[in-house]
Design goal:
heterodimer, A: 344 residues, mainly alpha, Ammonium transporter fold, two-stranded antiparallel ribbon, 14 helices, 2 strands, 1% strand, B: 439 residues, alpha/beta, Ubiquitin-like (UB roll), Rossmann fold, 3 domains, 17 strands
């Protein structure tokens, strides 16, 4: 009986609540949200597509120096990234966001780190790994710890060690493109294994053997500066990384100028430029605090120089960035800025 | 000359050109007003009138015995129709007095006592300010007399008048400074005397050059200095303003008086002028009605208790079709209303109506750790992280990462490219932390 009373009371309350809107029907419905009610005209698509735009000069340079095969490799990588993104998101029963631009960036960046003669199927595999394992396995955009493109590249290094280190001369040196091209050593390999230095000017314009998009420092710089102009990268990341490489590289150069390359060589050779402007600056995998960012780039640059000069590999940019990526959560945790008015 | 300011912050579109050249107009005398008995931070008032009572314009109708409180007055003359809980623009419902007007209005300017500042002591001034129901008119509505009564051991050496008005769309303070700079300065001097402070500063964003000019003219040769500040949101936030004007940082958990500063708003100064000079309680205020959802944006002098609907109808009404959002205040810190049947209160600096594409999207994307929220946060927090901690009710961590330091300016949500409602999550987390600490 008591329960019935309660029930009827409840019903009455509900009736009362339901009457209310009827009484207030003359009032039109308004949108209600929490402040602020005014947002910046900015979104992920815009950021990602601007990065793609900024990569255009580097892509154009890769086609200029290595021929249409470079374009083919970029296309294969991008398509493979997009398809993997779609497939994994379907499997995870998540909304499909393959066109947000981030998968396209991963595809382009991965392709730009490959030798021009790299087989298409292997590029497709590396791209699938980059997106599937490197990004989606961690939870998709924003949750990955490592830069997906670099992780894909590291995977290819382990899977196809020979293919990933077989370089060819650029077309501008009068050789044939493609898999039949004459193999050649990169400036870093020449320095490391044969003690030969390459001209700075050739490295600046990209007239050297190497990964498709890493060779032309100037093309990368144009894209990077454009991103800086649009406000999408923090200047301290690329400049700090290159600066750290130059300083630590320079210390060894001062110790023994005949054995070790000069600072300018360090920042023009290999993946330094591409890494500094497009991978160190990857928002997802770099720290957000000012001090964390400094530590990230200084240690990254030091690691790259150490690997280059003393490691088993001629190039250290990739591993230096991947290693530092792993420290990002810790860096952010321990470099929290002081609150306004803290400790006074 | 580089302008003074604080670190970080944002530069939103201010959209002030809609009303910043429009003179303040007197709104129509309302037929009915609804006066909430709590329009301030602190203890709610108890009604001093009952149903059927006749009330005069300016008569005190609600009072509380606590220190941190402020009385309320009738803004029209007429009869008390009822006292009940009614929707309040600050959210929820508040006990309010409904008064039906008799159509007459009092002239406050003429025949006033015309008091001379010199003859009044600090204490008398503080009493007048309290009795006349003066509260901070920038939006927070903190009782002014409380701010003016620091404990003895706290030496106050700077008084700052806040004329920043950094909220987009709002121009009420701007117009007040341009149209009645003498009254602003008179009120400011009264406030300074009440607080016992010699040095005064008026902080104004440099986009209001006409206001700066007007006030410089009036304060020339006095101990009040007009400071032009960078136009940047939230320049008018108390802590940011103090940093910009006198270079002091209010420590976490402390008040401006702890660094020897008292801050008051331009609107408050004008209300104090009326209160001291003409014994006029705080019964009307300047309200900016603006936004793309309003037909004719205006600056109106509105009586407290006038309904939003009445006010908006005097501005040509709001857009009829599509989505509309009506805010008590500006778009950065304003509170969205569920009905137009809410009254203008002492803290209503503006009514902003957003419509169509100006209304923010309701969906959000994953955080891409771009760090722009960290870059803009004026109190150096890491909002992307706090947002997640608040969303997940990880309250201890929220507190450790400075959640309670947040001044709720909304820069983080504004700048987020993924449109994440960061401030909303942080705010919910803060409320939960406080609830937990109370238990």
């Amino acid at each position: 009986m008591e329960r019935n009373d309660l029930k009827s009371m409840e019903d009455k309350t509900i009736d009362k609540l339901q009457e209310k809107p009827a009484q207030e029907k003359q009032i039109e419905r308004l949108v209600v949200s929490s402040s602020p009610h005014f947002l910046r005209d900015e979104n992920i698509h815009k950021i990602m597509h601007t990065v793609v735009l900024a990569l255009l000069p580097a892509m154009a340079a890769s086609v200029y120096f290595f021929g249409l095969r470079a374009a083919g490799l970029i296309l294969v990588s991008v398509v493979s990234c997009l398809l993997t993104e779609y497939a994994v998101q379907k499997l995870r029963e998540k909304p499909v966001t393959m066109w947000d631009g981030s998968a396209i960036i991963t595809g382009i960046l991965l392709a730009l780190t490959l030798p021009p003669g790299f087989p298409y199927y292997a590029a497709a595999l590396g791209s699938a790994f980059a997106i599937g394992i490197g990004k989606q396995l961690f939870g998709g955009l924003g949750y990955n710890i490592f830069n997906p493109a670099l992780l894909g590249r590291a995977f290819l290094m382990a899977t196809y060690p020979v293919l990933t280190t077989t370089w060819s001369e650029p077309l501008t040196k009068g050789v044939k493109a493609g898999v039949d091209a004459v193999s050649a050593a990169t400036p870093l390999a020449l320095m490391k294994f044969e003690g030969k230095m390459t001209s700075h000017l050739d490295m600046l314009f990209g007239n050297v053997a190497g990964s498709m998009g890493e060779t032309s420092a100037i093309a990368i710089l144009i894209g990077g500066l454009y991103l800086r102009y649009r406000g999408y990268i923090n200047w301290k990341l690329p400049l700090g990384y290159l600066g750290s490489m130059a300083v630590f590289g320079g210390i060894f150069w001062l110790i023994n100028p005949t054995k070790y390359p000069d600072p300018l060589f360090h920042i023009l050779a290999g993946g330094a430029m591409l890494g500094a402007w497009f991978m160190v600056t990857d928002m997802v995998t770099s720290p957000v605090t000012p001090l964390g960012q400094w530590l990230f780039v200084i240690c990254g640059g030091l690691l790259a120089v150490i690997i280059r000069l003393f490691g088993g590999l001629p190039e250290g940019v990739m591993y230096s960035i991947l290693l530092m990526n792993a420290f990002v959560p810790l860096l952010d945790k321990h470099t929290r800025p002081k609150f306004f008015g803290e400790e006074m | 000359m580089s302008l003074k300011t604080f670190d970080h912050g944002i530069h939103p579109s201010y959209n002030k050109e809609l009303t910043n050249h429009k003179k303040i107009e007197k709104a129509n005398l309302p037929k009915k007003v609804v006066i909430p008995l709590q329009q301030h931070i602190g203890a709610p008032c108890k009604p001093l009138v009952k149903k059927g009572d006749a009330v005069a314009e300016g008569q005190k109708i609600g009072e509380a015995s606590a220190f941190v409180t402020s009385p309320v007055h009738s803004s029209i003359s007429g009869k008390v129709k009822d006292i009940e809980k009614l929707p309040y623009p600050g959210g929820g419902k508040v006990l309010s007095v409904i008064i039906e007007g008799d159509g007459t209005a009092k002239e406050w300017g003429n025949g006033g006592i015309g008091l001379d500042l010199e003859s009044l002591t600090s204490e008398t001034l503080r009493n007048i300010i309290k009795e006349m129901g003066i509260v901070g008119m920038g939006g927070a509505a903190f009782p002014t007399h409380v701010k003016l009564s620091p404990p003895k051991e706290k030496k106050i050496d700077a008084f700052i008048l806040n004329g920043c008005e950094c909220e987009p769309y709002l121009t009420s303070d701007h117009r007040i400074m341009v149209e009645e700079p003498e009254n602003v300065v008179w009120g400011m001097k009264a406030l300074m005397k009440a607080a016992g402070v010699e040095n005064g500063f008026i902080g104004i964003e440099e986009n209001k050059s006409d206001a700066i000019e007007a006030l410089e003219k009036v304060t020339r040769g006095s101990n009040i200095k007009v400071m032009s500040l960078e136009t940047k949101y939230p320049q008018g936030a108390e802590k940011m303003l103090i940093k910009a004007v006198v270079g002091r940082k209010v420590p976490v958990g402390k008040l401006p008086m702890d660094v020897g500063v008292v801050v008051n708003n331009v609107g408050t100064a004008v209300a104090v002028y009326g209160a001291v000079k003409y014994s006029k309680p705080l019964i009307e205020r300047v309200v900016t009605i603006s936004g793309n959802g309003v037909k004719e944006p205006k600056n109106l002098l509105v009586r407290i208790g006038t309904s939003f609907e009445d006010v908006l109808n005097q501005c040509g009404g709001i857009t009829k079709h599509g989505e509309r959002e009506v805010l008590n205040g500006g778009p950065m810190m304003g509170i969205a209303q569920t009905t137009l049947d809410v009254p203008v209160i002492k803290g209503t600096s503006g009514i902003t109506v957003l419509a169509g594409k100006e209304i923010k999207p309701s969906t959000y994307q994953p955080c891409i750790r771009c760090g722009s929220c960290v870059e803009v946060c004026p109190v150096n927090l890491m909002p992307y992280k706090l947002g997640d901690l608040g969303r997940l009710y990880r309250l201890d961590e929220l507190k450790a990462w400075g959640g309670l330091v947040c001044i709720e300016c909304g820069c983080c949500s504004y700048t987020c490219p993924s449109k994440r409602p960061l401030l909303h999550w942080i705010r919910v987390g803060k409320i939960k932390v406080r609830e937990k600490e109370k238990v």
